[in-house]
């Protein structure tokens, strides 16, 4: 993988824009602060969401995709938004017992009735039904007194009614509707029991040795709604926003194999899961096996746990997503993809859950879910929360997605102190900072970091006020709404990774990337090139939070100031400067940070990666990150931007210094990825056969078989092609296959181990 910065053959002038300059003025609407005169600011009213976008919609036909097929008439739009239903809410004692699938329902009317059969009478019935169910929601909320900051269940329900999904979801998952609070304490990484993976593999092998003990019955199929599952089995469900579970197979009484959906219009990227489970027996360990994972390693081997949400716990005042699961491991299995795919095997994620309550409904997810509807509701709440005389907050529509959902873009800055020429001039000459997020749907942790950034920038904190007075923030908090809504892991509905489309994005197939890039081109063309660009991501195979940058040398030489990563290293407990990387690799040449750096000339162009697991340094060492720590990271990123202000005194002024913690500094952690799991086991049919199948055989017996294998090879190559002294690489490969728990250590240990292999095949202790 070449470093495009230091390879002289790759150096070139900045490429020309990928579109005519005549198309750029259409993006002027996304800079309302430059044209607003603040004369007509109505201090007594709250601006409605999307008002600016709607007022300029007639001028943006070239920007917005045609969405006429998604409800062309006023009646269709009204029907989609109003046909909501909340069911299964009863008295406290029967809320859960009377309904095995306790859900908030959003039933959308579909299709058109024959002429003359839909009139005012039907509308009146629908309005009466909606009023009835609204009263039930009010009763439930009043009885249980849910109070979660920056979350309003009714507002979430209204936002979800306007969300367009490909399957036509009619159900709201309870955690998304009710809301989430971080647990009161920190959650340590899960300890790994010795030989737990070996034990799980033996249990898998027993399926073939004792097939009579296996139930092997499908109890949930996303494509078969008529499927009837046994009364004593778990009940699964995933037909809701962000949900992903394609099939559940009961293997044993308390064990289930789970199959995930691939991303839309492709057959890859199985990682994200989010589903409902009910009808459990309390106190009984249930084993879940996600059997079609693709990545060769996972943080689940290093202390990471999935997250669980209990409806009963939430109704009792503990609405928490909590890390849960024991006996967690991730290993290669014997399942192969369908024909036509590359010849490889899948990987299994296995974990055991012991549910606390009977007649409960629980939700399990790869990581803390954050839906598109949650974003829309949160933006509306933020707009209501700010003081319009102090904070300029404007939400607009960047474009429509393939499914017809709007991609929001938010402008945040400080209102001018007055309408004088000096104050207006200062406002319109503030440098821009552009932040984007959630281009990969499965990286929900990035949305929680962005939530922390948005809420901090809208707060009354003195540091936030200083930032608003110094910068204009342009934020696109969800670049891939369709992927998020439909529960994909990496791609958009067209089956493409949007973060590999930046070099030449298609305006029809990748509209959010096309118009985001166009907006950046526009800022560059009017002399307002962003001071900072940062794309928020999540990382599934590394710990801590860190940045990928472009050309550390150029950033230091041309900017003449401290870098954001170094500042973050002293501010953010979860941040690790030593994990940052400034290479511009060929494989990343079409990503956001590289294209924005190369084509727009943004020196501080970053990708911020947040772990799905936790930290191995600092005060959070050994702890898994929760939503509290992720939102804190979003806040700390804002703090680091103060180092870029022209007046550096602002960083150390009495008004702000008391609100910034400067005590953190990361420790050494230079590994690019986790080492291979010490229990890594290979039993793919693609691998060569070896004598002996006992997985419990010790190292000495493995060594003996390795020597026997070498002797067999010598017998087969008597012509002098290979000899005992001349095939060290073959010998090394055999040994690394037979005892990977010794040979596959960290990179430094691996090098020293290789150097310790002597000619007679012995390993130095």
TrEMBL record:
<feature type="region of interest" description="Disordered">
    <location>
        <begin position="689"/>
        <end position="730"/>
    </location>
</feature>
<dbReference type="InterPro" id="IPR040626">
    <property type="entry name" value="Pepdidase_M14_N"/>
</dbReference>
<dbReference type="InterPro" id="IPR050821">
    <property type="entry name" value="Cytosolic_carboxypeptidase"/>
</dbReference>
<keyword id="KW-0378">Hydrolase</keyword>
<feature type="active site" description="Proton donor/acceptor">
    <location>
        <position position="609"/>
    </location>
</feature>
<dbReference type="GO" id="GO:0006508">
    <property type="term" value="P:proteolysis"/>
</dbReference>
<feature type="region of interest" description="Disordered">
    <location>
        <begin position="38"/>
        <end position="77"/>
    </location>
</feature>
<dbReference type="GO" id="GO:0004181">
    <property type="term" value="F:metallocarboxypeptidase activity"/>
</dbReference>
<dbReference type="GO" id="GO:0005829">
    <property type="term" value="C:cytosol"/>
</dbReference>
<dbReference type="Pfam" id="PF18027">
    <property type="entry name" value="Pepdidase_M14_N"/>
</dbReference>
<dbReference type="GO" id="GO:0008270">
    <property type="term" value="F:zinc ion binding"/>
</dbReference>
<protein>
    <submittedName>
        <fullName>Cytosolic carboxypeptidase 4</fullName>
    </submittedName>
</protein>
<feature type="region of interest" description="Disordered">
    <location>
        <begin position="109"/>
        <end position="133"/>
    </location>
</feature>
<dbReference type="InterPro" id="IPR000834">
    <property type="entry name" value="Peptidase_M14"/>
</dbReference>
<keyword id="KW-0121">Carboxypeptidase</keyword>
<feature type="compositionally biased region" description="Basic and acidic residues">
    <location>
        <begin position="7"/>
        <end position="22"/>
    </location>
</feature>
<dbReference type="Pfam" id="PF00246">
    <property type="entry name" value="Peptidase_M14"/>
</dbReference>
<comment type="similarity">
    <text>Belongs to the peptidase M14 family.</text>
</comment>
<feature type="region of interest" description="Disordered">
    <location>
        <begin position="1"/>
        <end position="24"/>
    </location>
</feature>
<keyword id="KW-0645">Protease</keyword>
<feature type="domain" description="Peptidase M14">
    <location>
        <begin position="368"/>
        <end position="645"/>
    </location>
</feature>
